[in-house]
Amino acid sequence: MSDFHQGGHVATLHNLRINTADDLNRELNAFTATRKVTLILPSLFSELEGDALPNILDELNKVDFINRIVIGLDRADEEQFRYARKFFSRLKADHVVLWNDGPRLRAVDERLKALELSPSEPGKGRNVWFCMGYTIARADSAVVAVHDCDVVTYTAEMLARLIYPVANPTFPYQMSKGFYPRVAEGKLNGRVSRLLVSPIIHAMSKVLGQRDYLDFLADFRYPLAGEFAMRTSILPDMRIPSDWGLEIGLLSEAWRNLSPRSVCQVEVSDRYDHKHQDLSQEDASKGLSRMSVDICKALYRKLAADGTVFSEEIFRSIKATYYRGALDLIETYYNDARMNGLHVDRHSEEAAVEMFASNIMQAGQVFLDNPMETPFIPNWSRVHAADPDIIASLMRAVAEDLEEFPV
């Protein structure tokens, strides 16, 4: 049962287990008769071969409130794109597959590179950005939602609860962010959120002093959730990171562009599990190690943009404060897990905290060594200003791919 807690900066919409999924669907069908919804699915080709995505498609076929599904397909050759077209053809809703590695979309990307507007590196952020551009080009949706393709506990109700706050015309929310417990197979998961994001936000508040931005982030129950929905009108001005700091970057953009009262978080599930990343302690370019560095850099960049001055000494203080606070949290998480019959490996938790502490300094050094770095992908308003034909070219490229490779 939910606890009714409200943090103060963003509204928390709980699941009080009274409305059923059918109740939500009836209301959403009424809302979306005039407020069309687009769902973006950023997908690696490898996810088409996993266990999660087939179930996700089955669940999506249970709902009628989705107007279009835009699938961004990464790491796929021509044969794999053909397979993907057939794989997604089981969807009842209107859908389109963006072949991000195909020659036509690569040609669009080359035009962006010539204007110095191309995403700097491949990844989820780049995938979502191109899907957002396509959605803007179609100009027929009032709401856009995004979620990952590796959720093994996915249900249609998760999507309904995620979309409801921004689809309901009587609500003020421009963005909703999903949250849920990260529990699976008798274990407490969500290490990066529990052991890095929460304690580093508190550490920075202690070292740097009170910051409204940090208070805003601290209100989110699960800031790294990949499930969010937005009013389409805010998409053209969203600048998102191309690296693994996407979720923090989106929250930062919400803080920059929107009133906190127009942002909410919504409880979308009782249980949630997806593909787990390795810690990758030996290779900082992979797994949770790389993710932690990118998240820290995203936090530093935002605070610097708001006038915070960083130095090696400040990063050392943040690391020391973080380390002590994170170790204390391990005890709390252990007790919480134990009381709920779950397992927490204290040794692996402390190893993760030690790696994150090291990466706080590494990210700080990268930040200091590259003061002119521009990691955010330009927003689509700027792209349109630089080349008004780019969005139309993106639509043509996608349409020609679908025509050349029919199901």
From TrEMBL:
InterPro entries: Nucleotide-diphossugar_trans. It comes from the Bacteria. This is Cell wall biogenesis glycosyltransferase. The lineage of its organism: Bacteria, Pseudomonadati, Pseudomonadota, Alphaproteobacteria, Rhodobacterales.
